[in-house]
Every structure is written in C-alpha cells, then in structure tokens.
Description:
The complex is a heterodimer of chains A (182) and B (298).
Chain A: H1 2-59, H2 64-79, H3 83-104, H4 108-112, H5 114-149, H6 153-160, H7 172-175
Chain B: H1 2-37, H2 41-70, E1 73-75, H3 82-95, E2 101-105, E3 112-118, E4 121-127, H4 128-133, H5 136-151, H6 154-188, H7 195-221, H8 224-238, H9 241-253, H10 286-294
Amino acid sequence: MLTWVILIIAVVIIGWFMLTYNNFVNLRNRVKNSWAQIDVQLKRRYDLIPNLVETVKGYAKHEREVFEKITELRTRAMSSGTVKDIGESNNQLSTALKSLFAVAENYPELKANENFMKLQEELTNTENKIAFSRQFYNDIVMNYNAAQQRIPANIVAGMMNLKTEEYYPVDEAEKGPVKVQF
Amino acid sequence: MEKTIYELRDSNIRRTYLFLVIFSLILFGIGYFFVYEFNWGMNGILILGAIIILYNIITYVNSDKIALASVGARPADPGEYQILHNVVEEVAIAAGIPKPKVYIMNELQPNAFATGRNPNNASICVTTGLLSIMNRAELQGVVAHEMSHIRNYDIFLMTVIGIVAGLIIILRSVAFRGMWFGMGERRRDRDSGGGGGNIIAIIGLVLAIIAPLLVIIIRAAISRQREYLADATGAYIVRDPYGLASALKKIGDYKKPMRTATDATAHMFISNPFAGERLLATHPPIEERVKRLMSLTI
C-alpha cells in the first residue's frame, strides 16, 4: 500500500515537473520569436535610413545637423546589445526621423520626389510594425517573467537557470496623456 | 475584457451555424412541398437533401468569394496599392492575426467591408473612393475597424447572412416572374388544370413576405452594438481613436448612395452604403459613432 502511495506521488511530481518545464520552453521560444519579429523590422529600418539621408541631402543640403544626428543614432542603435539599449536608441532614432520628415515639409521638390515618397512610406511601415510588435513582445515577456516568479514553478525556473527578460522601452514622447479635441 | 471578446466570438460562430441549420430546414420544407406535390418520391427527397448539403458546403467554403464577386471586387495589386497593403499588414500585426487578402472595389462612395469564415481565410475590401480621400491614419482606422470584425468572427455571420438574404431575394424575383407567367398559362388552357402556376404563386407570395422580414432579422443579428464594438476594438488595436473618427466623419459627409450595394450586402459595410436615413437602418448614425470614439480613453 505504502509503495503505491509513494509511487503515485512520484508520478504526480514528475508529471508536474515535465509540464512546467515544457511550459517554460514554450514561453522562452515565444519570447525569442516575438523578438525576432521586431529585429527583422529594425534591420530593415537600418537599411532604409542611408538611402533616405542620401535622397534628402540632394535637396536640402543645409540641414546637416539632422543628417549627422540620424547617422550617429543609427550607428549607436546597430551596436546596442541589450533589448533596453536597442529600444531606447531606436526610440531616439524615431524622434530624429520625425524631425527629418518635418524638415522635408519645407522642400516642395523633395516632397514630390518619387523615391522620397517611397522611402517615407516604407519607413512609416516599419515604424508601425515595430510599434505593434513591441506590444506583443512586452505582453509575452510579462507572461514569461511572471511564470518564473510564481510558487512552486520558480523551483523549476531556478533549475533551468532562467533569467527574466527586459521589456522593450516605450517612447517617452508617446507616453504623455492623449489630448482630446472636439 | 478578453473573456467577453472570446464569448462574443463563440456566440457568433454558434449563431452562424444555427442560422445555416434553420435556413436549411426552411429550404427543405419548401423543397419537400415540391417533392410531395409532383410525386417525386424518395429520389426527390434524396436529391433535395444532396442539394441542400451542397449548398451549405458552398456557402461555408466560398461565402467570401461570393460576397466579393457580388459587389464586383478585384484583388488589390501590391505595387499599385502599396500603402493599402502596408496598412493592412501593420494592423494585422497589431491585431495578432494573419494578414487578410486585400480587395478593391471601383466605387466613388468611401466604404469598406471584411468577409471570410475565419481569420485565416479573411479578406478586406475597400472602395477606390475611400482610398482617394483618406490619409494614412484614417485608412488605418478603417482597416482596424474591419480587422476587429475579422477577429470577432463577425465576418462569418455577416457573410453567411448576406448570402442567404441574396438567395431569398433571387428566389423571390424568380417566383414572382413565375407567378405572372403561370397566370398567363392558366388563362390559355383552363382545362388542363395548371397546379404548378398556383404553387409558384403561393411560394412567391410567401417569399415576398419573408424577404422584408429577413431584413429585420439581419438588423437584429448585426445589431448596432456590433458596429460600436468594432469601432472601439479597432481604436484599441491601433491605440488611436482619432484616425477612425476622422475617417467616419469624411464617410458621413459623402451623401451619394453606392451603385452596387443591395439589401443583401448592406449590413457588411463599415457605413450604410445607401447613404441617407432608412427606416430599418443597419448602422448607427455616424455622429453618434464619432462621439463615442472620442470619449474613449486608450
């Protein structure tokens, strides 16, 4: 009788352990996968920026400061290592790109340039995709981190040597209260 | 919040199947009447059953294609309509569903609709008029509204109801024509007792009564609440109620009716394609929708 009780308890514990372990593996893969979604868009953006700068330079030679800032931020973003750094430098890059497009407003010929319009659309596209995938990434990271901290699953997380993941930072400029206009 | 969305989705799927079953039973009833009247016996019933099953399969698999074809939509060329494709792709990421197929309708009235049986087999269709007057943010708002219909499985219910309504409207006009034709027959050879003409006349009358009732049923099924919900969900998906609000205002300012819309498809569009007020409106008034959107905190 006692052997049976011990056996059943052992089976339950092993079963629970396996389920928890697999759950962590799934979550970890989902975090990786959703990060890959963002990463693809970031790379695309890095590729588009030099083209954009070259095109704008042809029309607006005097805006050197803006070009330099964008080039510098791009280099910094590309060499960043952690999610937090990548996110922050990319958020700054977004702001700088916005000012570049604001500058372009003053050059009607540039605005009418087909290549420029195409690049602007492509960059808006990647920008939006980054913003929307960030939402998913952060949701999944929250699930992953919370799962690691719950009792008793934290024991398994400790045995697997799991680390909590960093959130992709939200742009400070976007955070402000939304103004309602009627 | 999340739970109610899932409940809503399940109830949409349930209602769609219920609708298909009820309509199949009605079809069977009408068909049985013929089988009985003309003494076609067991074979008649079997053929009738086969037709109804076939009809349901066609509705289930091809409902989106039928709906798209009935309004004359064509696939949007990715090069020509790059911005539209980009916007749909972005909003699909935001909504967490695969990118739907993108269609274009040659129509001056700014309008849009979504169709399909589930998020994996969905299509979004916009009119050329919509593309010509909306900026990117407004287009994104409209696409987000349609995307929430897709995610909630509203499209399944709306498309199936649209097809059934279309079929009834066709049957009605066929039966009406048959009725006049039948009356002529009867006058010519009174001796040979033209029972067929009478039956067709009765069916024509029954359908003539059913068709307007159906519009009421559609209105009940696709309640105004659903449009408000899709507005709110759409705004939430892209975190921006202003794009959609401004798009709705522009749509509301356009007063000419659409050429291709019928009673069968009207409920599928983002705004009433007939423009102007109607007694049994399928959509809530634009001003009210804009007001509600503007009061959202996102």
